[in-house]
Amino acid sequence: MNKLLVGLLFGAILGAADGATAWFYPEVRTMMQSILIGSTVKGMVVGVLCGWFARKVNSITWGIVAGAALGLLFAFLVAAMGEPGQHHYLEIMFPGFVVGAIIGFLTQRLGEPAARQNA
């Protein structure tokens, strides 16, 4: 399995798990379906970008940094979409940061690197 596919797969799984934690906040239980879909898609996008990065850069440290930064960026974008005065930045951005870092690590460790072409 290549690194892009690893990122896509683990991004979907970890994104869905991240979205499922919203159940612990009673005020958002009515929006669980959209939260789960959004978190899964966000995880998949971060996973594909981390997989692409892992094909270019072979460094676990930089993979974790890139994944954490991407997860934080996309989580910030989601948190900023909330209603005025009701932003939950910490509750959204911290798990996004952690999930991104894990995805960055997994894309560096798992999957086959891109095939090198001899020109």
Can I get a quick summary?
With 119 residues, this protein is mainly alpha-helical. It is built from four helices and no strands.
Description:
It is elongated and about 45 Å long. The longest helix has 25 residues, at 32-56. It has 119 residues and is an all-alpha fold. It has one domain. The protein has helices spanning 3-20, 32-56, 60-80, 89-109.
Most strands sheet: none
Strand content: under 5%
Number of domains: 1
Please count the helical segments.
Answer: 4
The whole-angstrom Rg is 15 Å
Helix content: over 70%
Shape: elongated
Overall SS class: mainly alpha
What descriptive keywords fit this protein?
about 120 residues; mainly alpha; elongated
Topology:
Layout: H1 3-20, H2 32-56, H3 60-80, H4 89-109
Helix pairs in contact: 1-2, 1-4, 2-3, 2-4, 3-4
